[in-house]
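Bit of a strange request maybe. I'm writing a small parser for C-alpha cell strings and I need a real example to test against, not something I typed by hand. Could someone generate the C-alpha cells for this chain?
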Amino acid sequence: LLGYSYDVFKWAAVEARYGYARDSQNYMPTGNPTSSVQATLNQFSILFVYRLPVHISKVRPYALAGSGVAQFRPTSAATNPANTAVENRGTLVYGVGADVEIKKHLGIRLDYRGMFYTAPDFGLPSLTVNAKTHLAEPSVGVFYRF
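Reply from user aminoacidic:
Good idea to test on real output. This should exercise your parser:
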C-alpha cells in the first residue's frame, strides 16, 4: 500500500492510495461446483481523512472515507477457469488508524481499511453472482512527513 496525503486543514486531509495484493475469489453458485479464481488485486482510491481531535503526544488518530477502483487481474494459476478476463469494480472505502511519530517527520502508521464492492465475475456467466462483498485490510507501515 502506497499513499500520498495532503493536509487541507489541521484536522482534514485528502489522500490518494495505491494498493497491490494477491487475492482469491471463491464462488459457490447454486447447482454448480465451487470455483476459485486467483487474481492480482490493484486498488486505486481517493479518500477524505478526518484527523480526530485527540491530544496524545506523538499520536494522530484518524478516520477515512472515500471511493476507488479495484482491478482484479487473473493470474496464470492452473486452477483458474479458462477464459477469465480482467475485471474492474467501483469501491466504497472506509477506515480508521493512527500515525505514531518516532522521530521528527518519521513514524509508524497503524491502519484498518475496508472496501465494499460487487464481486467480480471475470467475464464468465457461470461466476456472475451480483453479490456485494467486503475486503478487510489491516496494515502496519512507515510514513515520512515533509
